[in-house]
Amino acid sequence: MISITEWQKIGVGITGFGIFFILFGTLLYFDSVLLAFGNLLFLTGLSLVIGLRKTFWFFFQRHKLKGTSFFLGGVVIVLLRWPLLGMFLETYGFFSLFKGFFPVAFGFLGNVCNIPFLGALFRRLQGTSSMV
């Protein structure tokens, strides 16, 4: 059984608030203050959930440096109050960082989803992405 520390529980809450503020800032036509606050909360919560060392290791692996530079560069651009450009950079960096995770997630959703059309769609999406 995996034990979850109090810091990890707090980190999940902070990450959730970060995602909420990012979505709310996007809904309010890319409000730079909400997006910046959401970015800071999301990164802080992620660090609390998986730990500082693992967060640093995840972002600064050699093959993920391009995605990391776009993601963190987007965060900096949002903090400098250029929210639209910053969110585009963050989105590209996010997809670049997690491209190896998407086939696994689509495969899981294809197996769990009992709706015929969605199950077939997720299985198809699983096969088209590369694991590299």
Automatic annotation (TrEMBL):
Identification of the protein by name: Golgi transport 1A
TM stretches of this protein: 12-30, 36-56, 68-89, 101-122
Role summary: May be involved in fusion of ER-derived transport vesicles with the Golgi complex.
Domain of life: Eukaryota
Signal peptide interval: none
GO biological process: endoplasmic reticulum to Golgi vesicle-mediated transport; retrograde transport, endosome to Golgi
GO cellular component: cytosol; endoplasmic reticulum; Golgi cis cisterna; Golgi membrane; membrane; nuclear envelope; trans-Golgi network
Bilayer topology: Multi-pass membrane protein
Keywords: Golgi apparatus, Membrane, Transmembrane, Transmembrane helix
Family under the similarity heading: Belongs to the GOT1 family.
Subcellular location: Golgi apparatus membrane
